[in-house]
Design a protein that fits this description.
Elements: H1 2-8, E1 16-21, H2 32-37, E2 44-50, E3 53-58, E4 62-67, E5 73-77, E6 87-93, E7 98-102, E8 109-114, H3 130-138, H4 145-150, H5 160-170, H6 183-207, E9 241-245, E10 248-252
Antiparallel strand pairs: 1-6, 2-3, 3-4, 4-8, 5-7, 6-7, 9-10
Helix pairs in contact: 5-6
Length: 258
């Protein structure tokens, strides 16, 4: 998403001259007018990503933080007047183009932060040595594997879809604590997390080209997610099952993941 956005932004970083928070709940607990006060009149310096957080650095010495959640999208259109009905916030550049935050389910969030802000997240899998991963596992001896992976304070970037996919790739049960897994399986999971997120970023880059029609994980080649009742892709003879964990659906193969 951050890479796609950097490519779409107008050349020369024109200033933001107008904007509107269409749905006030997007910025809570901050007031929409406070968010606008720190953005209108400023230009975009850089666009970064940390976990699922998009961070837009502004010349006003602020950072615009956007969490897309499940159906959010952030993109630039040539004429901000032609934004669609699912737009929750928009910002107009001096050349008439617009930065649009679209979210059909209105789950995403947008906040204004001070310059240098970093979300309180753990490292991403690609940046985390295996020894650090093992130490995290040891500190949570009873936490089920799926819930462990989805804790962004421990590991950033693994949401519901990709946590399930990484556990399937490593042949680990989502309901058992990782502390019970062998070193061999922990190494497999450590690698699987990085591989899954690498593919997820590539699929998101491809998918976020169609504003209004893209959902999280839509272009990801899922092996288990949302495949309840379908045969396991490993041809083990079992079908994918679904359970509830932490209020979310978890998909797994009961034969391959132990």
């Amino acid at each position: 998403m951050a890479r796609r956005l950097r490519e779409q932004l107008p050349a020369g970083s024109p200033a933001i001259v107008a904007g509107q928070i269409v749905r006030p709940s997007v910025t809570r607990p901050q007031a929409p007018e406070d968010v606008l006060a720190g953005t209108i009149g400023a230009a975009i310096v850089a666009v970064r990503r940390t976990g699922k957080h998009i961070l837009i650095d502004l010349t006003s010495n602020h950072v615009l933080e956007i969490h897309l959640r499940m159906t959010g999208n952030l993109f630039v259109i040539p004429d901000v007047r032609f934004r669609n009905a699912a737009t929750r916030a928009w910002f107009e550049f001096a050349n008439g183009a617009g930065l649009v935050f679209e979210d059909p389910r209105a789950l995403g969030k947008m906040h204004l932060r001070e310059a240098g802000y970093k979300p309180a997240l753990g490292p991403e899998p690609e940046d985390m040595p295996f020894e650090q991963f093992v130490e995290l596992v040891r500190k949570a001896p009873r936490t089920p594997a799926k819930l462990f992976l989805m804790d962004q304070a421990r590991i950033a970037g693994l949401g519901n879809i990709y946590a399930a996919e990484a556990l399937f790739a490593a042949k680990l049960s989502p309901g058992k604590p990782l502390a019970e897994a062998s070193v061999r399986k922990l190494r497999a999971l450590h690698q699987a997390m990085a591989d899954v997120l690498r593919e997820a970023k590539s699929s998101a880059y491809r998918g976020y080209t169609d504003p209004g029609h893209f959902g999280e994980g839509e272009n990801y080649p899922a092996a288990v997610y949302d495949r309840e009742g379908e045969p396991c892709v490993r041809n083990c003879g079992r079908r994918i099952q679904r359970i509830r964990q932490g209020g979310r659906s978890t998909y797994y193969c009961p034969a391959c993941q132990r």
